[in-house]
# Entry
Amino acid sequence: MSNEAVEITGKHKRLGEILLDRKLVTLEKLEVALKEQSVHDRDEASAGKGYRRLGEVLAELGFVSEEDILKALSFQLGLKYLTFSEFPKVIPDNSYPTVKFMKQYKIVPIGIANNTLQIAVSDPLNKYILDALSVFSGRPVELFLSSEKDIMEAIEQYFGTDVQMTSIMEGMREDELESEGIELQEDVHHLRDMAFEAPIVKLVNMLITRAVEDRSSDIHIEPFENSVKVRYRTDGVLDEIESLPKRLQPAVISRLKIMSRLNIAERRLPQDGRIKLRVSGRDLDLRISTMPTVYGESIVMRILDRSSSLTALEDLGFPGNIIGEYRKLINAPYGMLLVTGPTGSGKTTTLYASLSEINSEDKKIITIEDPIEYQIEGINQIQVHPKIGLTFANGLRHIVRQDPDVIMVGEIRDIETAEISVHSALTGHLVFSTLHTNDAPGAVTRLLDMGTEGFLVSSSLIGVLAQRLVRVICPVCKEPFTPNPKILEKVEVALASTEIYHGAGCEECRYTGYKSRTGIFELMIMNEDIKQLVLGRASSDAIRQMAVSGGMHLLRESGWQKVREGITTVEEVLRVTQELI
# Structure
């Protein structure tokens, strides 16, 4: 339908009259909406901004559903109303506007008929969109009305990675894959050939590309009896994205093993490898880990973005009362500073931010890591290679002969590494490292349990930072919220009289309610009282009580502060600190 047709048919009745005729809104509610619209338009006009349409106001006030408004508009403008289920499953290949343009203006092409471009729109009265489409396509434009949600879903179906993945799998030679059966898994030469076939290459590339676009940190490919699940870890939470046919398992696994230069014939032992590639203009490092399971090999890929910039300390989420004290520790002339927390709690990111802040020409900084996640200009970084004898402990012995001022050890895993780190801190070096403990006091008892002498720990350790990552409420769909009473019971008095927020879910956050993560922290500074407890091999509970009496804020308290500030949710804080109860 042309622009002219929209204008002609649109004159016969107003939207409010149609809604009244259909008994979808009362006269009183309509008057309220019109008054709201008038006030808003007057304010916006004085600011030089645009106007709101009556349908938008009615929907926002909750007087009429979006679907009823669209159906009324359909009648008013003489446009056919379509839901997502009525859209064609595929559209013909053609020159269409960019996906960015479609998402910005909430339009999607649904086909071409009689040389006319058929477009679904959520705002058919926007003349700029209609004129742009006519100029772009060089042919007449026929409009269909649809909701923003259905249009965005159609864009993903037609132009997103989902449809591409489906098309790839449908194009594979199913008869050949199924006919080979068990023998295919034993034929290494056949597996190698299949791994280089275009459909398998495209499928694997699509899995990786989609994970990068979704800001995921890990890709999990897990075989089960009748299918192969693909899950992405995004903002610390796993989400199932795809279920591949079981028949594709050998080829997909072999493709990934070849890309990471692993032995495709070895399926009984775990293997580790890496892939370097460029996706969407970004240099990526994928760390591959394979593990044999009862239904075949499971693969996990950790995505490291080598082209991303380092995070500054200010951007990690440090509270104002902690960041100053922490800065004093990282600028100390010598001593050992530990960052603790479970896997995926952001320890390495914090250490990189710390090293980046103190990096200068008058300091020599050497790190030994596994893996090197970021490359920092001006810092000597060493990758451990246990197969050739370059372990943390062995590498650390040689590092101290390189006259460093600052040393960063990726992780203290054994007594040997712990003792060398402690002695390095005692001989004039500032040593950073990580430990896997639940809280800051637990790091001290972990070192003692490893076999490190108490007097060495108390003399060398200057501080311990424990941390977790909590998901941040999506700023687009953030709204006040009252948690479940059972959850509020666990909060006790920490959040009394506090307005609590959550994310309702929107396209921006993929309907999770969260977007990105921030840290919560617990900083224990070693004072004389705590050192005396360490010398006496006191329990972590006793050390914790002493640290709290000295002013240390616990992890959960840091989390409640983030809730009070409207940054995260009660559920998130409870999720990441549940082991501290």
Confidence is low (pLDDT under 50) at residues 1-11, 45-50, 174-185.
